[in-house]
Amino acid sequence: MIAVIVVAASAPENAVGITLLDKVAAGPDTVLKTLVDQGFKNAVVAHGQTMGIEVEIGERNPGQTGFVPILRRWIVERAYGILMLHRRLVRDYEHLPRSSESRVYWAMTAVILRRLTGATAAAWRSS
Q1: Three-class HEC string of the chain
Q2: pTM for this prediction
Q3: Across-strand partners of 33?
């Protein structure tokens, strides 16, 4: 996880996408390409180009009906599923967006530590 932004559901996706790209570009990591869903429009793509980040919109083929997996979209869905295993992220218990952001970082840190140590369950579940 490189950057997290928590906003209200009513926030426009383009504004959030631009803010997120700014936060990613300000970090020490070099991101060259990012994949976004169809909700993001050309403003995010243009902003990414000015920052040297290629933004690819993962679009669904309009000719296909029913459930059709979108290339690499499952990676994002898997991350959401992993985050939902953490009780504090299932519901919005926090009063401030920065508190929710910190919970996401804590949850992903726990996931990374479990992967590094080879643990099969969270430490608090083993006893």
Answers
A1: CCCCCCCCCCCCHHHHHHHHHHHHHHCCCCCCEEEECCCCCHHHHHHHHHCCCEEEECCCCCCCCCCCCCCCHHHHHHHHHHHCCCHHHHCCCCCCHHHHHHHHHHHHHHHHHHHHHCCCCCHHHCC
A2: 0.72
A3: 54
Indicate the residue type of 1: M
**What CA–CA distance (Å, rounded) separates 73 from 88?**
24
pLDDT tens figures, 50-66: 988 999 887 778 888 88
| Residue 63 neighbours by CB under 8 Å, 6+ apart | none
CB 53, CB 29: distance < 8 Å: no
* Averaged pLDDT, 27-32: 81
Give the dihedral of Cα atoms 31, 35, 6, 69; nearest 10 deg. Answer: -150
Per-residue pLDDT reduced to its tens digit, 77-127: 888 888 888 877 777 777 888 888 888 888 888 888 888 988 776 666 655
Token pair listed for 42:
């050309």
